Amino acid sequence: MEQLQVKVAEEAEFRVAGEPRITSPQGFTASGLHVGIKRKRKDLGLIACEVPATAAAVYTMNTYQAAPLRVTREGLAMEGKMQAMIVNSGNANACTGARGLEDAKAMQREAAQWLNIPEHRVGVASTGVIGETLPMDRIQPGIPELVKQLDSAGHDSFCQSILTTDTRIKTVEVRLTVDGREVRVAGAAKGSGMIHPRMATMLAFINTDAAIEAPVLQSLLRQVTDETFNMITVDGDCSTNDMVSVMASGLAGNEPLTPDHPQWPAYYQAFSYVARELAQLIARDGEGATRLVEVVVTGGETREGARRAAKAVVGSSLVKTAVFGADPNWGRILTALGYSGARFHPDRVDLYIGSICVVHQGCPVSGVEELAKEALVQDPARIELNLNQGEAEATAWGCDLTYDYVRINASYRT
Amino acid sequence: MEQLQVKVAEEAEFRVAGEPRITSPQGFTASGLHVGIKRKRKDLGLIACEVPATAAAVYTMNTYQAAPLRVTREGLAMEGKMQAMIVNSGNANACTGARGLEDAKAMQREAAQWLNIPEHRVGVASTGVIGETLPMDRIQPGIPELVKQLDSAGHDSFCQSILTTDTRIKTVEVRLTVDGREVRVAGAAKGSGMIHPRMATMLAFINTDAAIEAPVLQSLLRQVTDETFNMITVDGDCSTNDMVSVMASGLAGNEPLTPDHPQWPAYYQAFSYVARELAQLIARDGEGATRLVEVVVTGGETREGARRAAKAVVGSSLVKTAVFGADPNWGRILTALGYSGARFHPDRVDLYIGSICVVHQGCPVSGVEELAKEALVQDPARIELNLNQGEAEATAWGCDLTYDYVRINASYRT
């Protein structure tokens, strides 16, 4: 049996699954195959639900939205339900014009036929190189096999099939009790470059067996995404293919969850935990990264200001290289804060690296360089800025900038 | 005698000096010394004018403005004149609190005393590590020697004294005829990291012997900066110390230049040329860079949109690594355009790498990969996007992102 850890949140309690599976919530199966989009590794995956699931999704704000996102959005708009999600890696099907749209629709149609469900209940996602058309002659024949292999044990195959430059699969699962029933929320995600989400993020798929209405699910997803996936950055580049989608099978049998439900806080916390952990897994596995960087801003005048400040610091190339070099160069951190657009008084700022206070009320603290250096080599490397200006807080996650980021991206296609 | 090239601009004519000197405009001398802020290289420099020069300056928009900028601004506000600029490298005197302000004032006061001019006519600039106080015990004794060495041959020493991670000095000079008199405009600048100017830029000093009133000079500087220094990026980090200042001695004896002067267009073009060339020199010598990247956006709906688009593309880590790897990965270029915030229709966009059209009306052009690759290894690597949406244009400059950028910044202080 798998191991369950107990996680006590502020106002709620949920358990974190030691062996998370995207197929763990009731009703879900998954599969993943190699069909030849990539040279060797799995490149086509499917999640299916035995019932039409209530669904929601958020998409990239990039003007170039990849074809599969459009197909998914149009399908979802029809009845707010989804019953399957087909995903390929190795090719983003972005900037591919009318042909790209046809291909995304063909993936949707083909999967629907073999699953024997309406087309509009199939979501489509793609990730990989931009500007090349999909090898449909390889994808199409793989779809019946993909459907055939659907299984609750298909978790690993699916998670592998969505990776590009990722070095590991990214998956999280939590369980909680709602109306006396066990409810599960499980997610899988992929990174790991072109990561700087705005209003949505990289590919992430969340399954839950909770009963919840579509509008509630959509607003839950939007709010949680804003605090989690939208707070990570790897390289400042906001992709054409970012999407987070969620399917809720309702098979747990709870009363439908709404903000008025007594267990809403617990579910919100559990859902949020899954999203935050996935977001951190993406940041930690950023291209070439050696470790996760967490930037916490407290005491902000406004939440937007705190968010900007946290994202500016975590996204600064000079902060990222300083973390890589274990150089507690707090001047670079304050500089990024200074150009973030957040309002603050320089002489009120406290800056911590790990638990070491390196700047107090705007003045450097002497004799702490070595301690700060030790704190900076921890994983995660944690930077906290207290603006002492108000009550607003925000946390952002990123990674260090290393030789390997350059190596990976100077030779991605060639 | 030095060699002069003829440069014909759209509506004006000026000559580019083959051996540019910051001291070439009438009235200016300069010097540079090693006083021990840096280990070996020159680190203290001075420009002086034999008469009180009409002056103007623009400063970083970072909330943390270094102490010397405040001292310069306050001095300049008193009568719009400057007669000297003292600069140190190796230490930014930024985030140094009250002590930093005292030190900057001491530099100003000391230079004024030895030059025998009012304090407020001395500008101060610093560049280097943030958050450490200046070694005034080394700087102060150097100032009389610096004043003593002032000479029209001091050009090289001054230019060397302002460098940090720069690999070369950056200097440009042009000459033109105004009212039958020869007028000269010469500038010196330094980069080369933490470069992402907003409303001002890295340190750049421009000398001219033109007669021009302070308000006209200030508005000229602001407008030209916006089209030149504010259009470069190395790493997206906007420094605490950015400043461009200009001194106009008036010794050329022309009628004061205003937009109504018949030779205003010529002077504007000449001045703009100096600023643009300095900006490009900074971008080309970006930390670790192997070459200059020029991004031209045409056919924009608005100028602001075109500017955003050009800056997003030139600042994209993925575009920068693709240039380093000579990978004509146009998907990354369109992606950056897509998140820039510029308004455009994806199916109208034309994209050129060098002179090679790789995307026409939103569709990839086939069979041009090799040609595009060849174009991308040129210096400068030139990327042009025609949005076919309107008349607005903008050009931005940057550099590729290389292993050396990471090396330099992972070990800057340690």
TrEMBL record, chains A, B:
<comment type="subunit">
    <text>Heterotetramer of two alpha and two beta chains.</text>
</comment>
<feature type="binding site">
    <location>
        <position position="287"/>
    </location>
    <ligand>
        <name>substrate</name>
    </ligand>
</feature>
<feature type="binding site">
    <location>
        <position position="409"/>
    </location>
    <ligand>
        <name>substrate</name>
    </ligand>
</feature>
<keyword id="KW-0028">Amino-acid biosynthesis</keyword>
<keyword id="KW-0963">Cytoplasm</keyword>
<dbReference type="InterPro" id="IPR042195">
    <property type="entry name" value="ArgJ_beta_C"/>
</dbReference>
<comment type="function">
    <text>Catalyzes two activities which are involved in the cyclic version of arginine biosynthesis: the synthesis of N-acetylglutamate from glutamate and acetyl-CoA as the acetyl donor, and of ornithine by transacetylation between N(2)-acetylornithine and glutamate.</text>
</comment>
<dbReference type="GO" id="GO:0004358">
    <property type="term" value="F:L-glutamate N-acetyltransferase activity, acting on acetyl-L-ornithine as donor"/>
</dbReference>
<feature type="site" description="Involved in the stabilization of negative charge on the oxyanion by the formation of the oxyanion hole">
    <location>
        <position position="127"/>
    </location>
</feature>
<feature type="binding site">
    <location>
        <position position="164"/>
    </location>
    <ligand>
        <name>substrate</name>
    </ligand>
</feature>
<feature type="binding site">
    <location>
        <position position="201"/>
    </location>
    <ligand>
        <name>substrate</name>
    </ligand>
</feature>
<comment type="similarity">
    <text>Belongs to the ArgJ family.</text>
</comment>
<dbReference type="InterPro" id="IPR002813">
    <property type="entry name" value="Arg_biosynth_ArgJ"/>
</dbReference>
<feature type="site" description="Cleavage; by autolysis">
    <location>
        <begin position="200"/>
        <end position="201"/>
    </location>
</feature>
<keyword id="KW-0511">Multifunctional enzyme</keyword>
<keyword id="KW-0068">Autocatalytic cleavage</keyword>
<comment type="pathway">
    <text>Amino-acid biosynthesis; L-arginine biosynthesis; N(2)-acetyl-L-ornithine from L-glutamate: step 1/4.</text>
</comment>
<feature type="binding site">
    <location>
        <position position="190"/>
    </location>
    <ligand>
        <name>substrate</name>
    </ligand>
</feature>
<keyword id="KW-0012">Acyltransferase</keyword>
<keyword id="KW-0055">Arginine biosynthesis</keyword>
<feature type="active site" description="Nucleophile">
    <location>
        <position position="201"/>
    </location>
</feature>
<dbReference type="Pfam" id="PF01960">
    <property type="entry name" value="ArgJ"/>
</dbReference>
<feature type="site" description="Involved in the stabilization of negative charge on the oxyanion by the formation of the oxyanion hole">
    <location>
        <position position="128"/>
    </location>
</feature>
<protein>
    <recommendedName>
        <fullName>Arginine biosynthesis bifunctional protein ArgJ</fullName>
        <ecNumber>2.3.1.35</ecNumber>
        <ecNumber>2.3.1.1</ecNumber>
    </recommendedName>
</protein>
<keyword id="KW-0808">Transferase</keyword>
<dbReference type="InterPro" id="IPR016117">
    <property type="entry name" value="ArgJ-like_dom_sf"/>
</dbReference>
<comment type="pathway">
    <text>Amino-acid biosynthesis; L-arginine biosynthesis; L-ornithine and N-acetyl-L-glutamate from L-glutamate and N(2)-acetyl-L-ornithine (cyclic): step 1/1.</text>
</comment>
<feature type="binding site">
    <location>
        <position position="414"/>
    </location>
    <ligand>
        <name>substrate</name>
    </ligand>
</feature>
